[in-house]
Amino acid sequence: MSSFQKYYAKLTETADFLLHNPELGYKEFKTSKKIEDEIHKISPGLKVEHYLDTGLKVDLTNGSQKTIGIIAEIDSLYQPNHKLADTNTGAAQACGHYTQVTTALAILNEIISNHRLEDFGANLAFIFTPSEEFVDLAWRKEQKEAGKIDYFGGKQEAIKLGIFDDIDYCVSVHAIGEDFDERTIEINCDLAGFNFEYFDFYGKASHAAFAPDAGINAQSIATLFNTALALQRQQVKDPNRIRFNPVIVGENHESINVIPDHIKMGTDLRFFDIDNAQKLMNRFKQAAEGCASALGGSVESERQVGYLPLISSKSMSAIVKDVFSANEKIPGLIEDRGYTMAAGDIGDVSFLIPTIQIGYGGWNGTIHGDDFTLVDPEFVLAIFPEFVFNSILKISNNLDQVKTYKKTKEEYLTELEKMEK
Ligand SMILES: [Zn+2]
């Protein structure tokens, strides 16, 4: 019996605890404590480094030149309608991140209990990262204003703090939100980057029936702006790799008989090409100003930097494919989708160093929805972690086949600054 099978019963309990204790980004205190407890159950002597209150890092060094980071996201999504949502915070494991944690623990358990560290051609670092989901934005904004964080993504903050300074390659995993007929993994799937932009349209209130001529309708400006963005789509380069979704945000305090004097809108802009995205964001601003001025109102805009796109390492994925071809437990492989317009702060890591994300099925319901559920625990908690272990092992012993690059933290922060303008 492999250590993955032996650890399966224990890991089922851990998964159950995490599933029932979902927490929002930067506040994963119970999750973080649980992970640390489980690490110390695997080996009481392991040194656990703490960062950002809830982030954890365990370095396993075998004297190699290079280090592979193994990522597990520890936060939950905001999905108050999920059947296992926390009733106070609305947090729920609707993105399956808790099984990234169990995957990392299963790999760590194999390395320690079967003394496997020397088999690897690289040092390993287990990095448990907070706050991947881009939610709870009002609270994060307060934290930012108070100087506690600069970025909403936990990996972004971790990079800034130097947690990735000594990492040369990165392997991450993520649940796939689809039903499959057979056990399935996915490789070579890039993720989009994104930015948020907010527009406050200002008009002038007046009695809507008695004196509409004295008012300037902010709602009409917003409608015009929505139309401008819809027409803008014709002028988008590479339209299949761009998304934007303008919506009215915030509460409406107006009454029906008053011409509204303020409407707040927001849109994301999802992209793969940062320069193209910058151009488009500037056109959005130009359209907002034009629409406001056309009806005699005004606009203020504010940008919230999101994540960089994940450009996954094709050469690392090729090694994972070799491991897949030799494996007998997982029959399904998706390798040709190329990209999705979903995003994650793993993209920021891929800006620094060669990075992959291996997707795994075993779920049903809608990812990020109210019914997302693990339906194949044996696959997700035992078979898949063993597959990831074998993949990292093979990558570590074939690093000469991996196309390598390493950008500095400073280069990364400059890239983010570029997105802010
Ligand atoms: Zn996720």
What is the topological layout?
Layout: H1 3-20, H2 29-42, E1 49-51, E2 55-60, E3 67-73, E4 77-78, E5 91-92, H3 98-113, E6 123-129, H4 137-145, H5 154-161, E7 169-175, E8 184-186, E9 189-202, H6 218-232, E10 243-244, E11 247-248, E12 262-271, H7 274-294, E13 298-305, H8 314-326, E14 332-334, E15 338-343, H9 346-352, E16 355-360, E17 363-364, E18 373-374, H10 377-396, H11 409-420
Parallel strand pairs: 3-6, 3-7, 7-16, 8-14, 9-15
Antiparallel strand pairs: 1-2, 2-6, 4-5, 8-16, 9-12, 9-13, 10-12, 11-12, 17-18
What does this structure look like?
By secondary structure, this protein is of the alpha/beta class. It has two domains: 3-188 and 312-420, Aminopeptidase (3-Layer(aba) Sandwich), CATH 3.40.630; 194-303, Alpha-Beta Plaits. Helix content is 36%, strand content 22%. It has eleven helices and 18 strands. The strands form four sheets. The protein has an eight-stranded mixed sheet with strand order 1-2-6-3-7-16-8-14, with helices on both faces. Strands 9, 10, 11, 12, 13 and 15 form a six-stranded mixed sheet that branches. Strands 4-5 form a two-stranded antiparallel ribbon. A hairpin with a 3-residue loop joins strand 1 and strand 2 (55-60). It is elongated. The termini are far apart. Keywords: Carboxypeptidase, Hydrolase, Protease. One of its GO terms (molecular function) is dipeptidase activity.
